[in-house]
Design brief:
This protein is an alpha/beta fold. The protein has helices at about 20-30, 65-70, 75-80, 95-105, 105-110, 140-145, 150-155, 175-180, 190-200, 215-225, 230-245, 275-280, 300-310, 320-325, 360-365, 375-380, and strands at about 55-60, 80-85, 115-120, 125, 165, 185, 205-215, 250-255, 265, 265-270, 280-285, 290-295, 315-320, 345-350, 350-355, 370, 380-385. It has a seven-stranded mixed sheet, with helices on both faces. A four-stranded antiparallel sheet has the order 11-12-14-13. This is Alkaline phosphatase family protein.
Length: about 400
């Protein structure tokens, strides 16, 4: 062993990532390319999906490909489906992946670069998941924070009414407005309601339906992936997928994927309680497996050196520019999004997490985490069931 860290699994943007799936789904439906000058949808069909009259995307929060493979016996239907694997994107976290699925763009272009991000030019964090700012701050406009056109707006222009079937509590939230602009929202809280909602939305001659299930991820955070409770949720997801497949009318395709995988933490490092990691730091953003670190003015070089020393053998620690140049967020990062990225980014590759317990106390109590560029977190399944 030479002591060198492993290479990060940099997402395969532009051919085998979640960001490539939504435009491929539209292409399968015959929706014209994003390039209005193109004569067909072929240029957008990077995943080479077969034509269909109706597509249903079943998004299972936290269903990593490695996790599913480890417990294939508890998910026999999913494990029997035609499958390939995609890379989630960086960070491998819900807000980033949902926005990639909603826009067909890599993170560097849509700007949702982590769960909690600095507002450029301000000394405060914005929680992109809960869509919250510090008390007293005006609300964040979803169309300003995430201005890119969504794939649902593209579908609507082509005469398809896209629909989203998911928890009633998420309807009208800032995150929903940022990533699902243009959908018909169908509130559905139980499995039965979601299956019924999908069936109704697939009844037309052409349909684009997304259905979401989040309990697998929530269970993994609380008690760990692979736990008895998590396995019960996996069985429920498998049953739901089978029931969704049964609702498919002729000429349809069901695709099952996830926003990220998960690891269970073995070691917890509290950066805010570690002087060598807290000195010179203004704000701790991101999350425990993809920590954006915003430094005091002029402190970035010293903070970067300290973090590299403390986290040697445990995490990739790079400057903002190094992360961008390495393609972590995609081939390009828009200039206006650069300030959202930490002055340095710390990404564990062992089973450790980097906490900021004073700022993010709920996160500190978790068992399961995600965000990094390990196979367990990056690889997500793309399973297909077709009635074409």
């Amino acid at each position: 062993m030479d002591g060198k860290p492993p290479q990060p699994m940099v997402p395969a943007y532009g051919g085998n990532s979640l960001a490539d799936l939504p435009s491929s789904l539209l292409a399968a439906l015959g929706v014209p390319s994003r390039d209005q000058g193109a004569r067909s949808a072929d240029s957008d069909n990077l995943l080479d999906l077969a034509p269909a009259d109706r597509v249903c995307l079943f998004l299972v929060d936290g269903l990593g490909a490695e996790l599913l493979r480890a417990h294939a016996d508890r998910a026999p239907f999913l494990s029997s489906a035609t499958a390939r694997r995609l890379t989630a994107g960086f960070p491998s976290t819900t807000v980033t992946s949902l926005c990639s699925l909603g826009t067909g763009l890599p993170p560097g272009e849509h700007g949702m670069l982590g769960m909690t991000l600095a507002v450029p030019g301000e000394r405060h964090l914005f929680n992109c998941l809960r869509w919250t700012l510090p008390k007293g701050m005006p609300p964040m406009d979803p169309s300003e924070w995430q201005p890119a056109e969504t794939v649902y707006q593209r579908a609507a222009r082509a005469g398809i009414t896209p629909s989203y079937v998911g928890p009633a509590a998420f309807e009208g939230t800032g995150l929903t407005e940022a990533v699902y602009r243009g959908v018909r929202y169908v509130p559905a809280d139980t499995v039965e309601e979601r299956v019924a909602g999908v069936k109704a939305m697939l009844a037309g001659p052409r349909a684009h339906v997304t259905v979401y299930h989040g309990d697998l991820d929530a269970t993994g955070h609380l008690v760990g992936w692979g736990s008895p409770q998590w396995l019960d949720q996996l069985e429920l997801v498998d049953d739901m997928a089978a029931r969704l497949a049964e609702t498919l009318p002729p000429g349809s395709a069901l695709y099952v994927t996830a926003d990220h995988g998960m690891v269970n933490a073995v070691e917890k490092i509290d950066a805010q309680a570690t002087p060598a990691l807290s000195e010179g730091v203004a704000m701790f953003g991101g999350e425990a497996r993809a920590r954006h670190v915003y430094t005091e003015k002029g402190a970035a070089p010293a903070v970067l050196e300290a973090w590299r020393e403390v986290l040697a053998g445990k995490a990739w620690v790079v400057s903002r520019q190094e992360a961008v140049d390495s393609g972590w967020f995609g081939p390009d990062v828009r200039r206006e999004w650069m300030g959202r990225i930490g002055d340095l980014v710390a990404v564990p590759y062992t089973d450790c997490v980097i906490l900021a317990s004073a700022t993010h106390p709920i996160e500190a109590a978790f068992v399961g985490y995600h965000g990094s560029m390990t196979a367990a977190e990056q690889l997500v399944p793309l399973l297909e069931v077709s009635t074409r």
